[in-house]
Amino acid sequence: MSLEISNFAQSIGGSTIVNMRRKADAIARSGIKVIDLGPGEPDFDVPAPVADAAIRAIEAGHSHYIDPRGLAELREQVARFEADQHNLTVDPDQIVITTGTFGALSIVSRAVLNPGDEVIVIEPLWDPYRNVILLTGATPVGVPMPTINGRFVIDADRLAAAVSPRTKAILVNTPWNPTGRVLTRQELIAIADVATERDLWIIVDEVYSEIVFDEAKHISIASLGPEIQRRTIVTTSLSKSFALTGWRIGYCVAPPALSQVLGRLNHYTTRGAASMVQHAAIVALADGMQHVERMRLEYMQRRNIIVSALKQIGGIVCPVPEGGFYAFPEFPENWGDSTRLSDLLLKDSGIIVTPGSDYGTCARHHLRISFATSQEIIQEGLSRLQHALAGRLIGE
Ligand SMILES: Cc1ncc(COP(=O)(O)O)c(C=O)c1O
């Protein structure tokens, strides 16, 4: 017997952004101040009432095992939150509290996928979905979406064409990282039609649901009717909306029979989210919306700074982000591939941005610019970007 590491574990590659941060450390050591426009998490502190609630829960001795589906009081609060914010009517028994969206996706994929199954994933794609699916022995099938004036849109014909006899589910993300899109009712109906016609599960990741701007409105696909709800599993968390990424608290909402299975899977994987964090999540969901709103307004201001600065760079097309905290501008093809461009931007200008290629080849001429960082950092980063790109120092 040899001490082998599993094939799957060996196949997991490192993330580009982690590699870029390593390179950035070397650049910083040489005396250049690096500007990080890569973050995928809020830069805000945990809202004070939520932190206080966690401290109170610790002091009250909430330190024991709890129901692996999550605290009943929290599941009731989630049901109220989904009804109030997303017009989604669910019974608390359909909800399982998880260690963030990752925890939810992990049990949901195990609950519905068998080895050999296929899952349709929509590109540009938040890359971790691939490994979540591969872990179950199923295969992600990437379907690139087209752009209209630089904005990625859902093309349901392409999704339908990718369905095979092995397809089990379509995975949807709205608001959509990295594109900044919030899917419209028509786009969601078009996806739901494909799923209904071909009898597929819809797994929807709504982790950015509270961060939407202007006229955009987050619509929960499960709220579009009973036939859609019976095949939809929502995965989400408090990570982005309440600035709680490190607290690992999220949930999934599933049809009744499936939620029983999800509860058991939660038991035998993570045993659920930490009890004091679940107590704090009750306070966040019940009373925290003014904090969500404060952060949302700040994201919107930062977004506006980025969009107007990018407009001044010839050749770049930047659709106004509708939700989440990323701008996803497209640059001219003759500037090269985004991996090369982001490498040059780091080396020559000390700016970290995420290459669009990380999200699929259809985004190889895009860059993801995060506005989950201060206005000051954004101003500095954008002025360096303008300098590097406006003069076409790169790619010519
Ligand atoms: C689209 C998307 N889904 C899920 C997550 C992970 O969220 P959580 O902290 O809830 O596990 C992220 C984090 O970057 C994300 O961008």
Write a concise synopsis of the structure shown:
The chain is of the alpha/beta class. The chain folds into two domains: 7-45 and 291-389, Aspartate Aminotransferase, domain 1 (Alpha-Beta Complex), CATH 3.90.1150; 48-288, 3-Layer(aba) Sandwich (Aspartate Aminotransferase, domain 2).
List the helices and strands and how they pair.
Elements: H1 7-11, H2 16-29, E1 35-36, H3 48-59, H4 72-86, E2 95-98, H5 100-112, E3 118-123, H6 128-134, E4 139-144, E5 147-148, E6 151-152, H7 156-162, E7 167-173, H8 185-197, E8 201-205, H9 226-229, E9 232-237, E10 250-253, H10 256-269, H11 275-287, H12 289-311, E11 326-327, H13 338-349, E12 351-352, E13 354-355, E14 367-370, H14 375-390
Parallel strand pairs: 1-12, 3-4, 3-7, 7-8, 8-9
Antiparallel strand pairs: 2-10, 5-6, 9-10, 11-14, 13-14
Helix pairs in contact: 3-11, 4-11, 5-10, 12-14
Bound molecules: pyridoxal-5'-phosphate.
